[in-house]
Write a structure and sequence with these properties.
Strand content: 15-25%
Radius of gyration: 22 Å
Number of strands: 13
Number of helices: 17
CATH topology of the largest domain: Rossmann fold
Order of helices and strands: EHEEHHHHEHEHEHEHEHEHEHEHEHEHHH
Number of domains: 2
Largest sheet: 7 strands, parallel
Structural class: alpha/beta
CATH superfamily of the largest domain: Glycogen Phosphorylase B
Helix content: 40-55%
Oligomer: single chain
Shape: globular
Length: 394
């Protein structure tokens, strides 16, 4: 009989967490596992890439509470008060103060989920995959029936909004906790050392074969630029550091280098970045390409791949650039040293515009180093599928 696994996350928007999930479910044997992806929102360009045979479900009631989830409780209380919904307003004020006292919102989650139907089906494994998102962790623990329950941590908890009080109370109820890098695990256990026995590292799954085949498809660069093509892939978001990249490129152009920097990705910082690009007179040099579910033709054909992130959990786009043997520059975020050997397979620098600039100049002026990095990456094994044994063992 097939083992039944459900992975829960917010949506299937284009991002590293969602890409890692796609890769994982693609590797799980459909003969041995019945896989369900449960989403809060029916949204995301990656939905169409979910493999055949994987069931997709949505929390239909979520649309009724989405407003409550996305605004601070005191603002919701004020909104209700303005609409004359006095009782509702006082309820929100009550939960606002209770949450302040408890320093976490589990009682509020219990309240808003009071009318939700517990998922009827019983699974062998239920995974709170979009971690650390408190609501999904709470939902998996309380609204899904499963023999085993797992918590996934995709981000560096030192650099995101991580509620240690909620985690202290609820993470111990999970049968296992997976963190996507060794350094990320260390950061989690520094805060919650009592979780050590049930916490393991699970590197994000990538498929070198699929990446290389998709690199031959899609549109890629079509502007016929014949200078140095620099590429970054990731959400347009302050944590991904595209603003730092813009400043680094400004120095390159001012110092006479013929370079163009391309960014594949979309996000809520686009408008700010467009203004920054204009202020620095880079309209023809820093190109925001938008989201593309297949960034691999760009990676394959760029001259230098740069990951300027302020923080990451396990950077899957960095792993993909490694698969395509590109000269790589990355900032020293959590997990970077687990992927790149500084001076051997790439350059690791501080999250600083001048350091990134100097590293790019070094690669532009020394093709031997680029060749050295490319050869060393080609000799590496990029197989991360051994981690699948941990799912099988559970």
């Amino acid at each position: 009989m097939k083992k039944k696994i459900v992975f829960m996350l917010i949506n299937m928007n284009i991002g590293g967490t969602e890409k890692a999930l796609l890769n994982m479910v693609s590797e799980l044997s459909k003969n041995n596992y019945a896989i369900t992806i449960l989403m809060l929102e029916k949204y995301g360009d990656f939905i169409k890439f979910i493999p055949n045979g994987v069931r997709v479900e949505y929390v239909k009631e979520y649309k009724d509470i989405e407003y409550l989830m996305n605004k601070p409780l005191h603002i919701i209380a004020l909104d209700y008060m303005k609409k004359g919904r006095i009782i509702k307003s006082f309820i929100m004020i009550f939960f606002y103060f209770i949450s302040k006292v408890m320093k976490e919102r589990s009682l509020f989650y219990k309240y808003i989920l009071r009318d939700f139907v517990i998922v009827n089906e019983e699974y062998d494994i239920a995974v709170a995959y979009a971690g650390p998102m408190e609501f999904i962790s709470y939902f998996v623990l309380n609204n899904i029936k499963a023999k085993k329950k797992l918590q996934w941590i995709h981000f560096d908890i030192n650099h995101i909004s991580f509620n240690r009080f909620f985690a202290s109370k609820f993470y111990k109820k999970f049968d296992g906790i997976f963190v996507v890098s060794k350094e990320g695990k260390k950061h989690l256990l520094n805060i919650l050392p009592f979780l050590e026995e049930k916490t393991k590292v699970f590197l994000n799954i990538i498929s070198p074969e699929l990446i290389k085949s998709q690199a031959e498809m899609g549109r890629g660069f079509n502007d016929e630029f014949d200078g140095i093509k620099i590429l970054t892939v990731g959400r347009l978001n302050i944590e991904k550091g595209q603003d730092i990249a813009i400043q680094s490129l400004t120095k390159l152009i001012q110092n006479g280098y013929k370079a163009r920097w391309y960014c594949v990705g979309e996000g809520n910082s686009r408008v700010n970045y467009e203004k920054q690009i204009q202020r620095n007179n880079l309209n023809d040099h820093f190109i925001l390409l938008g989201a593309d579910p297949n960034p691999y033709p760009y990676i394959k054909n760029c001259d230098i791949y740069v990951q300027p992130s302020r923080h990451e959990g396990y950077c899957i786009t960095l792993a993909e650039a490694r698969c395509l043997n590109k000269p790589i520059i990355t900032t020293n975020f959590t997990g970077a040293k687990e992927q790149i050997k500084n001076g051997v397979t790439g350059l690791i620098v501080k999250c600083d515009e001048d350091e990134i600039y100097q590293a790019i100049v070094k690669l532009i002026n020394n093709k031997t180093i680029c060749k050295h990095f490319t050869n060393n990456l080609a000799a590496e094994s990029n197989d991360t599928k051994n981690g699948m044994k941990q799912i099988v063992n559970i």
